[in-house]
Amino acid sequence: MIRSADFAGLKVPETRESLKAILFADDTTAFLSENDDFRALQRVIDVWCSASKARFNITKTEILPIGSAEHRARMTTTYRQTGEWMEYPRGAKIAGDGEPVRILGAHLGNNVNQRLIWRANLEKLRTALERWKKGRATITGKALVMQMMAGGVTQFLASVQRMPEEAVKEANAMIRKYIWDD
């Protein structure tokens, strides 16, 4: 139904079909081009909600403008000032440049500071390593802690968005400090 919907979606290089939606559990991410009419997406949503007895929570809806800097600025400014942009839903949050939107665990957006995104993960790793440091782990135990903690805390985010070089250096420093007892 979404594939045949009357909107273009996002053209992805080297693919035959444009990207129109990603659905995972109770999260839906829809992609509209600059020229798409939100009403076409709304018709699909209405049919889907009617059939599934679900409903979309507009207060949780986030809009991430994609396109030229001029288009993004015009859309964000207009929506924030008037609460309207074409036929987009009222009451949604719109992300301006530098403001991340969380999509399935990734923090995406235009001109987002990746160091700030990684700050929470690195702090979680630092706290965990300080707690583990209070024990008396062998070098083998420390290797297991590294796989569990450093790998566990960084692996998913690194797979869905890049890990900045500064974050890599900081994580490596924490790992060395833990393994070699400062």
Short description:
The chain is mainly alpha-helical and 182 residues long. Helix content is 47%, strand content 10%.
Describe the SSE topology:
Elements: E1 21-24, E2 27-30, H1 38-52, E3 62-63, H2 69-82, E4 93-94, E5 101-103, E6 106-108, H3 114-133, H4 139-160, H5 165-179
Parallel strand pairs: 3-4
Antiparallel strand pairs: 1-2, 5-6
Helix pairs in contact: 3-4, 3-5, 4-5
Account of the protein in words:
- This is Reverse transcriptase domain-containing protein.
- This protein is mainly alpha-helical and 182 residues long.
- Helix content is 47%, strand content 10%.
- The chain has two domains: 99 residues, no CATH class; 67 residues, no CATH class.
- A two-stranded antiparallel sheet has the order 1-2. It has a two-stranded parallel sheet with strand order 3-4. Strands 5-6 form a two-stranded antiparallel ribbon.
- It starts with 20 loop residues before the first strand and ends with a helix.
Mean pLDDT: 89
Tell me the number of structural domains: 2
Oligomer: single chain
Q: Would you count the extended β strands for me? A: 6
Percent of residues in beta strands: 5-15%
| Category from helices, strands and their pairing | mainly alpha
As residue ranges, the low-confidence spans are none
Tally of separate helices: 5
Gross morphology is elongated
Major sheet: 2 strands, antiparallel
Cα-atom Rg, whole angstroms? 21 Å
Give structural attributes:
two-stranded parallel ribbon; 10% strand; 182 residues; 5 helices; 6 strands; two-stranded antiparallel ribbon; elongated; mainly alpha
